[in-house]
Write a structure and sequence with these properties.
This protein has 82 residues and is an alpha+beta fold. α3 links the parallel β1 and β2. The strands form 2 sheets. A two-stranded parallel ribbon has the order 1-2. The protein contains 3 helices and 4 strands; from the N terminus they run ααβαβββ. α1 packs antiparallel against α2 and α1 packs across α3. The radius of gyration is 15 Å and the shape is globular.
Amino acid sequence: MINRLVAAKSDHSLERALRRYCSPRLLIIDELGYLPLDKEGRDLFFQVISKRSQTGSVILTTNKASETGERCPGQRSGDGNS
């Protein structure tokens, strides 16, 4: 998704690409954090998420651990509530 958005920005079709990711009722983004995002990638990702907040739901998956050690909000790994 990010690579497509970067390419769309380069060829001046970013608005069309953003509409593509904002039109479904549900957007699923798998493996967030698998590859690092540069500033441009983070900015484009933020644009998608902020536009989606008004149009539909987002499901994000990642295998990257949070900096606080929480697996889910309020749940630490190894606390027996897995």
